[in-house]
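Next comes a single protein record:
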Amino acid sequence: MADDVAKLAETSGTGENTVKVICLGDSAVGKSKLVERFLMDDYKPHQLSTYALTLFKHTATVGDKEVVVDFWDTAGQERFSSMHPSYYHEAHSCILVFDITRKVTYKNLQTWYKELRKYRPKIPVICVANKIDIDYSVTQKSFGFPKKHGLPFHFVSASDGTNVVKVFNEAIESAVQYKEHSDDFVDQVMQLLHEDKFAGDDDDGDAN
C-alpha cells in the first residue's frame, strides 16, 4: 500500500500547471461521491489499488490559465487511522468532509486536521458538511470546528449537488494561489529528498 501511494505521489501535482487537492474525512462521509458529482461525466478515476487511493484528474481554467487538477481520495485507506505521508506530499489544498448524519465524523475532524497540519502546515483547507439533503434543518446550526480554525465552511450535498461546484472551484483556486505564492519549507525539503532519490537511482544504474 505505502509503495503504491508513494509511486503515484512522485508524478502527481508536480507539473508547473498542476495542482493537487486532497480529500480528508472518515470512511463513508461521501468524499468520492462529492468528487464524482463535481466532475459528473468528465472524469476517469484511476484506482491504484484496493487499499490505496483513487486519483481523479480534471482540467480547470483559473483566470486565464489552464490548470490540471489531481483530486486524491482515500478510497477506504482511512480505516488504518493514519494516512501514508505521501498522501499529503505536495498537496496544495484540502477539502475536509464530515457527514451530518453521523456525529462521530464531525468529532474526528480534529484528528484529521491535526495530522494534515503535521505534513502540510500552511495549505488552505475548506470544511464541508455533507448529506444535508437528508435534513436541511442542519443548515441552521452553527459548527465550532471551522470557526475555531478559521476555515471556510459550506453545507453540501453530493446527492442533489448543493454547493458542490462552489466548494471544488474554491479549492482549485486556493490551490493555485497557494502554489504560486508559497515558500513552504516542507515542499522544499520534500523536493530535495525526491531529487536525491532519483540521483541515487541514476548512480545505481551507472554502476551496473
Notes: Strands lie at 18-24, 46-47, 54-62, 65-73, 93-99, 125-130, 153-155.
